[in-house]
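A common beginner's mistake is to predict each chain separately and then try to dock the pieces by hand. The better habit, illustrated here, is to supply every component at once so that their relative placement is modeled jointly.
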Amino acid sequence: MQTRPVNQKAWFLVLPVVVLVAFSAIIPLMTVVNYSVQDTFGNNQFFWVGLEWFDDIIHSERFHDAFLRQILFSALILAIQVPLGIVVALCMPKSRFWTAVVLVLMALPLLIPWNVVGTIWQIFGRVDIGLLGKTLFSLGIDYNYTQDPIDAWVTVVVMDVWHWTSLVALLCYAGLQSIPDAYYQAARIDGASRWAVFRHIQLPKMKRVLLIAVLLRFMDSFMIYTEPFVVTGGGPGNSTTFLSIDLVKMAIGQFDLGKAAAMSIIYFLTILLLSWVFYTVMTSSDASDRKPRG
Amino acid sequence: MQQSATTMREGAAVPQRAATGGTAGAVRRRTRGGGVPVKPLILTLYLVFLLLPIYWLVSMSLKTNEEILSTFALWPQDLTFANYAEILSDPAWYMGYVNSTIYVVLNTVISVSVALPAAYAFSRYRFLGDKHLFFWLLTNRMAPPAVFALPFFQLYSSIGLFDTHIAVALAHCLFNVPLAVWILEGFMSGVPREIDETAYIDGYSFPRFFTRIFMPLIAPGIGVAAFFCFMFSWVELLLARTLTSVDAKPIAATMTRTVSASGLDWGVLAAAGALTIVPGALVIYFVRNYIAKGFALGRV
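With all components supplied together, the output reads:
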């Protein structure tokens, strides 16, 4: 990495991407910034209000609640999906045929449109026509995701585990594939235990892909919208109203542009900050791990 | 090099293992001894968990509405394809699939083709602001679509692209281009720089080198990047729905609207959902070897 030559002409290669992303990111973002510092009484007449909208949002109970729910949701998702993904990756079969079969089956949920994922779980969990709902009901468990907040949460979390654990597993599997057989042979000669093999050979080799997996899963779970919206619509009450759902409600439902824009900016900056923290923590622990080994 | 080693290992795995007994599988088998096969058990449970909801959807799509609501059976008692027939004969339904496919393919082509040179620049050269630029690109992958829905709507309406396929394809570039750059950069960094230098000494021009020598070398990377672009564009609904109304309406949006309009036609809804799984399943089937090998070659 350090030996890459300096070449300013490389900018020409990057230019198409910069133009394209600038068009689809900077212009809309400027609109958002514009709205966030102005107010309007209609007729396209705007006047400057400074940081009032931000002040409003930061002190609003509704935003605090949605924010806490979002943090809790993302934390739960990471805590379940990352370990489960690693376990599934370790369980992959050895034979070529079965690997292909399992890979195809595992990737299936990833390619289902998000609202269909919602529809699938909506149907699956219904007490009257769903397999899951009906089974739980006949077991005597009072399960109803449209009325009980806890059930709604469980449904949304299980749905996300169903939907995305395969991504973590696929990435980890790719990491495991890159380990040369010689490593395992050496471990066997040293009489290493199963846990030692995992801790000192497999886990370090998966670090890079795990970083990608954690970042992707964090970012995507933090902006989840479609699936819970289809299943619970943010309810019962506001119990599954995550940040995106709240934002869309505010921007398109109530057309509260200034407030929604201010919230957008806070929301976006939060994701940036948290992703940066994850990235820094995980890469720096990687570097300190590598140093003693040389 | 690495790739050929991987292929060789996989190809020769069975006889090699039998001969030396020194592979990972043998180690694990030996330490565990007899008893319950834990790994296949965990994997089977996981796959059952994945497939049950999908099975339920498919089985429901083969039932009549009366059967769905009145009887509860694990498989269709009165097998019917009427739900599928309704979708495939009504343009309002099947045009949704056509529209989705058009903008997804457009987006994949645009994303990968602009990302290729950029990823090459990032993996081979240092230039003014390269690190900042790379990070800025990634930040767009972190932008919640909900933030962009309204501004996108205003932007594309004002330039007359509202309700066109290209509008959705461009909007999806927001998160797909950074991802494609990220993935491709990883794969390209795995290719030794000596190859570039040798090619230039041999008199290859940059475009010729890039298309004739370099792109075949990173073909798995291109496959993986295209797969991810396809995937994230195919599954996205919020932006696609916001930017379309009639002519380019995606199938996902058709589903949500029809449900609210015609009451609860569970059978047709399930059939429409089941059909949206088909393109994804086909794509996975074709890139299955790229997924396993491709990831391992790239970022690891």
